[in-house]
Amino acid sequence: MTQQEIEEWLEHIPVFAVTDSNGAGVVLRPENDTSVFYFFLNPNQANATLTQLKTANDEMDLKVSAFSLGKIWFNLLQSDKEVILKQPGEEDGSGESTNNVEYRLVPDTRDLLGARMLLTMTPEDGEKLKESGGMTPEMAQAAIKKAMEESPKFKQTYNEIPVFTIAQMRMQKQAAEGDADKEPVTLLPMYFSMQNMVGTWQEFMKQAPSDIQGVEPAINLMSLHDLVNMMQKESEIDWRHVVLVPLAPSSSGESALSGATPAAADPMAQMGGATLGDD
Question: Where is this region: Disordered (predicted)?
Answer without folding.
Answer: 254-279
